[in-house]
Amino acid sequence: IASISKEFTAISILQLVESGKIKLNDTLENHIAGLPNVKNITIHHLLTHTHGLPDVMQSEEFDGISPQDKEQTLNWLRKMKTQSQPGEKYEYGNTAYFVLSVIVERASDKNLKNYIRENLFKPAKMHESFFLTDNDIKDERVVGYNEKGDISSITKFDFHDSQASGTGDIVSTVNDLRKWQKALVNCTLISKSMFADAVAPKYLNDGTQIDRGYGFAHGSFQNQTAIYNSGDLYTHTRHFYLIDQDLSVILNMNGTIEDDGGLASIVFMQILGKLFNQQTSEIFDDVIDLNKL
Fold first, then answer.
1. What is the C-alpha separation between 57 and 78, in angstroms, rounded?
2. What is the distance between the alpha carbons of residues 31 and 246, in angstroms, rounded to a whole number?
3. Strand order in 235-242's β-sheet?
4. 13-61 pLDDT tens trace
5. How many CB atoms within 10 Å of residue 13?
6. Which of 1, 23, 190, 289 is 20 to 30 A removed from 126 (C-alpha atoms)?
7. What would the 3-class secondary structure string for 138-173 be?
8. pLDDT tens profile 260-288
9. Containing H/E element for 251?
10. In terms of Cα–Cα distance, which of 270, 290, 271, 272 is closest to 280?
């Protein structure tokens, strides 16, 4: 489910906040020494992608094809310079959620995978969810295809699966993702007030609203509040939730889609069209018929 895994990292952090082990306004120096701007970047900034840290994958030393050593990755990040001051700019990326994965491990004294299994998968009864690096993933795991023009080929990536820890390494199903949504809404994992804070829009230092909460993108559909995420790695996944109607739309595809668009967006809008009796929709400046591909 690729970047939808970030939801699980975020909820892990919020659980630790509610248990009193960390605080949203904790600075990085409370948990990880030596990182850029360590005294000013907070957990809030990491959760909302407003931290200003560089993309650690752009480090000259970054070696994506080897198993990840988190301490080594932190050392690469320590040598890099910040791109902006905390809270000044929103820029989506993986660095923050890699750092958050380290904070989860240090605050809980557990490996991130074990923490998520025990504190998220188990209480949510997600029995069909695993990690890319697990050796016991069911045989039915889908192999993704890469679409380029009229050519489809089995996807191959030149990096090690462990490099996606905390940012995109969860393997799941439509059924389990629905269980995930129910567990969030039913306060199985975090309190009602904490979930409300997680899905609320956040703001930059100058008051500009960003379309991002804690682990969730924030938007609207037909004047209703929606949270959503998409993930693209081997396969493509969408997670969309209308809060007021308690309605989830979850889409899994066995193809990776460049620029997060194309067929996935059309199928996704067709589902919403059926639910809301829409016949057409505008996607990428083109009006499409929702009754046919």
1. 13
2. 36
3. 217-221, 224-233, 235-242, 247-253
4. 999 999 999 999 999 999 999 999 999 999 999 999 999 999 988 888 8
5. 25
6. 23
7. CCCCCCCEEEECCEEEECCCCCCHHHHCCCCCEECC
8. 456 667 777 788 788 778 787 776 566 77
9. strand 247-253
10. 290
